[in-house]
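Researcher: Structure prediction, please.
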Amino acid sequence: MEKQIRKRLKLLLALIPVIALSVSARPKGEEDDDYVRLMKADYIEQFEKNGQQFRKAISSTFLHNGTYLISDSALWNVDNKIINCVGHVKVIQDETILTADKLDYLIDSDLAQFRGTLVQLQNKKRNLLRTRNLDYNTKDSIAVFTGGAAMRDEDGQLIESRSGNYNSATKAFTFQDEVNMFTDSIFMRTSMLFYYSEEEKAVFPSYISFWRGDNMLSANEGWYNRARETFFFTDNVHGLTNEQEFWGDSLYYYQFPGDLLLLGNGQVQDTLREVSAVADRIHYEDTLRKVTLTRNAAVALFTEEEGKRDTIYIGADRMSYQQTRFCDIPESTLKASKDRLNDILTDAVQQFREKAAKAAAAASEEGNKQGGPGAPKGGAGKGGAKKDGAQKPAGGPGAPKGDAAGPQQPGPKKPSMPDSLASADAPAVQDSLAVSDSLAVSDSLGFAPAAMDTSGLGYTAQEDTVAAPVELPDTTRYGFADAVGKVKIFRRDIQVRCDSMVYCDL
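Model: Predicted structure follows.
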């Protein structure tokens, strides 16, 4: 008990000169946050070395400018006004926390210096900045880093640069020099980036290079709204994919579901389909595979027939093109398309001639059935009957007298007619019976029955049941295009003007 009392008295006596020095060194009118206060310590020691006053504190907590300096041990040079903190160092100011292994705090400069070891800065939104060289001004609440740093948010988005700063008051990061940004499957590079953590918004005030897979985009300015998952690029926008290349004044890219909105002098070239399009507003919907052109819309299609290249120009107030899977096309659309195709491929003149020829043939056949002026009067049927009646029966006058009708004389009995089964046609009769005989079918027992023991081991072979193949839907994509309002079509051999137009690949 006495040891504890002595320890507390020793600690109190050590704190008296510290407090006295702090109070005496405080100018008149100075605020409470302008001087350093030792809020807590497990052990305090005061000593002099090389003519300078030092104070050593274990498990210490200092307070200056509303900022807490926490460490395992701290050495305070009273004359130079520098506090060296070592071991589990923490700097806490409002919602900003810095952690490191060591820290040099310059009291007169209100500056916390982190050098050499890894330092980590975390704010309320759990944005985590890591670097090895950082200065934090407790008066202005600004952290400045050099020599490279990387910041990661709670969703995994990563931003890195050579230098920059963080303003704790505005919750804003500034990244400069070789700035790289990674978010989901997107990689971006620029020379300067502002990230506002409260709004989850990144602003690119300088030239931007953007990649997603094999797709590339560039612009002079832009921003990214993390909450809405929307990118905006402006000033000389240029994009390049494996199949298309496009230009425009500005572009919105909606990360999910992957739609694009190109505004102002939009131009698209599709090298795969040999199509070029221009419009002041081009909207691409990725989920529908649909592109819509409005505001001065025009399309040029490059074709080749018999080795000659040609161009079809189409203009309208609104045009759209969409690709749809065959299995998703309504039956009514398929039927209407088939009817249109038949109408297009049918020769109207030839169809009229065939119809007239069929009508003439039908009229001629009807006239033959009713009998015309050139037909014989008696008719073919009557003449045939008379000719058949002129034939004499077998028992007539030309026959032998013994064959005349009357009582038969006794004598050897003759067969009345030969046996039909003994004739030469008997085999044919037997063949006809063989066909109708169900036993003449090849014996199914010639093959081992499914349940018969074919191995001699007491096992029975089970009948193989082959599942019927499942018919997969036809996922072939077909194009559908339409144009509405002041439609104009031009080619070297045709010119068309109409109110609307519909086209499909069917």
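Model: Residues 15-30, 374-461 have pLDDT under 50 and may be disordered.
Researcher: Thanks, that helps.
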